[in-house]
Specification:
With 369 residues, the protein is an alpha/beta fold. The chain folds into 2 domains: 193 residues, Rossmann fold (3-Layer(aba) Sandwich), CATH 3.40.50.2000; 150 residues, Glycogen Phosphorylase B (Rossmann fold), CATH 3.40.50. 34% of the residues lie in helices and 17% in strands. The strands form 2 sheets. A 7-stranded parallel sheet has the order 6-5-4-3-1-2-13, sandwiched between helices. The longest helix is centred in the C-terminal third of the chain and has 16 residues. The chain is globular and about 65 Å long. 44% of the residues are buried.
């Protein structure tokens, strides 16, 4: 039995960079993966931080060069290389990672966040990304629809890798007689998230129904829009570590999104973590996460559909109990520990040398800050 550690290089948003009120995005799932891996026996994790390369102003080019230098330095030191990126990272980093991994004979995988592929790029960039993905040992994508799209594009080594969150045990409370009165919408303050529909639907209810909105500002919906409302309230931003506890104070999540780039929104597994059913739009790949067992799907950009679904949960306690039970049954599918196990299996698979878990020294190195 060997005591050799499996050395993993994770290239993505640094877990220690997650501070403040950000909700969703790529940093949270990356942070969760790194935090889980460093607790595993027989694993050594190195991280190259990719934050700040995009939208970083005049410092972005220098930041980009530093990231490339750190990647070049770390690839030969590790057994498996992994790039974790949104679509933008595929053309800015994937070709570089692919070329160096091949040069040093290191297996590598690409994990793509979000629900869009690279087909929107001009032909030269699209070809470069396709080469990078095609030459990877594994290509992990967030939605099942993207798996099918990649296979149609000739990429057979593609696997589904879901967005996820921790799923601690739920209390065995007796929910008989519990009503659905408290609705919550949590995310970025963007029109594409369906905030206008949330406001219109929520304002139709009386005083016994609560409709609260949490989210980060600075997008195309000003906080002032909530100033003169009677029933829908804005409650500020939420620290990522507090999302589950905030959601636990409500009965159902509202997500009437119609963002064109929507993939697997992290707020849905957050809701499942807290035991909440979900009312969301029948939009893009959302039905892969929410079905008739865990929520209600509505038409996009329809306040009437949203209001009808909210009334349905409000007035039908048996439906509410059934959906809550369905969430309990399905939540493991989005458990971050389950997906960290899968990631480690993928890494061992492409490394071709399973590593014993008998050792107890798990280490993490910050390759680049």
């Amino acid at each position: 039995m060997t005591d050799k550690r499996l050395r993993l290089l994770l290239i993505g948003p640094h877990p220690e960079s997650l501070h403040g009120p950000a909700v969703g995005g790529t940093t949270i799932p990356f942070k969760l993966l790194v935090a889980s891996l460093v607790r595993r026996d027989g694993v050594e994790v190195s991280v190259v931080n990719t934050q700040g390369m995009r939208g970083g102003g005049m410092h972005a080019p220098l930041r980009y060069l530093r990231v490339l230098a750190a990647i070049a330095r770390e690839i030969p030191r590790n057994d498996v290389v992994s790039l974790h990126a949104v679509r933008w990272g595929l053309h800015s980093l994937a070709p570089f990672v692919s070329a160096l991994s091949r040069l040093f004979g290191r297996p590598y995988l690409i994990r793509k966040f979000g629900g869009t592929d690279y087909s929107v790029y001009p032909a030269p960039l699209r070809a470069l990304i396709h080469w990078s993905v095609k030459n990877a040992n594994l290509y992990l994508v967030e939605t099942k629809a993207l798996v099918e799209g990649a296979r149609h594009d000739g990429i057979e080594h593609v696997r589904w890798y879901s967005n996820s969150r921790p799923m601690p045990e739920l209390s065995e409370e007796d929910s008989a007689g519990r009503e659905c009165l408290r609705f919550v919408c949590l995310g970025q303050l963007r029109k594409g998230k369906g905030l206008a529909e949330v406001i219109e639907a929520g304002e139709r209810f009386g005083g016994d129904v609560v409709v609260d909105v949490y989210g980060t500002s600075g997008y195309d919906v000003p906080v002032s829009i909530f100033d003169r409302l009677d029933h829908v309230g804005y409650r500020g931003s939420v620290d990522p570590d507090d999302v589950r506890s905030v959601l636990s104070g409500y009965d159902a999540l509202l997500l009437p999104t119609y963002l064109p780039t929507e993939g697997y929104p992290g707020v849905i597994p957050e809701a499942y973590s807290a035991g909440l059913p979900v009312i969301c739009t029948n939009w893009r790949q959302l039905p892969e996460m929410v079905d008739e067992s865990t929520g209600i799907l509505i038409e996009p950009q329809s306040a009437d559909s949203l209001y009808a679904a909210m009334r349905q949960l409000r007035e039908d306690p048996s439906l509410f109990r059934r959906l809550r039970a369905g969430v309990r049954e399905r939540r493991r599918e989005f458990d971050s520990e389950f997906w960290a196990d899968r990631f480690l299996e993928f890494c061992r698979e492409i490394a071709g040398s399973p590593v014993s878990r008998s050792t107890t020294d798990t280490r993490v190195r910050r390759a680049q800050r």
